[in-house]
Amino acid sequence: MEYEIAPEELKAQQEAGGDVVLLDVREPWEFEIAKIANSKSIPMGDIPARFNQELDPEKHIVVICHHGVRSMNVTAWLRQQGFEKAQSLRGGIDRWARQIDPTVPVY
Fold it and tell me: Rounded CA gap, 86 and 89, in Å?
């Protein structure tokens, strides 16, 4: 599985009924401004303390941030912890808002 997933691929998986966990690793104030429906918010700094209790290593997890840098770092870290199905949303929520869902605010 690739380390990144394009917004178009994620949208297609969602429409096909794929079981995808959306993990938003931005700060709470960012999550309040813009979010993808049904996303789980765990700020990047909280991931090491919370991932074992709140995430299932068997699930397909798509990690989301603003532009894709933080999410790629978290994805790489999760992969090292055995989460083989973790992927980073390429371009982050910014690209999602511009290409997939214009109702999501750009900031």
Answer: 10
The two tokens of residue 76 are 């790489």
Residues pairing with 5 in the sheet? 89
The CA dihedral of 25, 28, 32, 36, to the nearest 10 degrees, is 20
Q: State pLDDT tens for residues 35-61.
A: 999 999 999 999 999 999 999 999 999
SS3 67: coil
- Catalytic (active-site) positions: 65
Which one is the CATH code of 4-99: 3.40.250.10, 3.60.15.30, 3.10.50.40, 3.40.50.880?
Answer: 3.40.250.10
What pTM does this model have? 0.97
Q: What is the pLDDT of residues 66-81, one digit of tens each?
A: 999 999 999 999 999 9
